[in-house]
């Protein structure tokens, strides 16, 4: 991540450990917002192509149908 984003390793480690909250088994609204914000930040940094619709990609990748099964 550090190499791809061209950031120091300690910054990448902080992002992965502290800012990206993915410790729960289901991806809810807070996790979705964190993933979306990270994607937009990477896009602004030039890591993700400017033509990519980051929000659409996040929507396509997160399938909330599985969240219902986790709560049953």
Which short descriptors sum up this protein?
72 residues; 64% helix; 0% strand; 5 helices; mainly alpha
Walk me through the structure.
The protein has 72 residues and is mainly alpha-helical. The protein has one domain. The chain is built from 5 helices and no strands. The longest helix is centred in the middle third of the chain and has 16 residues. The radius of gyration is 14 Å and the shape is flat.
Structural class comes to mainly alpha
How many angstroms does the end-to-end distance come to? Answer: 35 Å
Number of helices: 5
Tell the overall outline: flat
Beta content: under 5%
User: Largest sheet, if any?
Assistant: none
In the predicted model, the low-confidence regions spanning at least 5 consecutive residues are none
Work out the radius of gyration. Answer: 14 Å
Domain module tally:
1
Mean pLDDT equals: 84
Can you write the helix and strand succession as a string? HHHHH
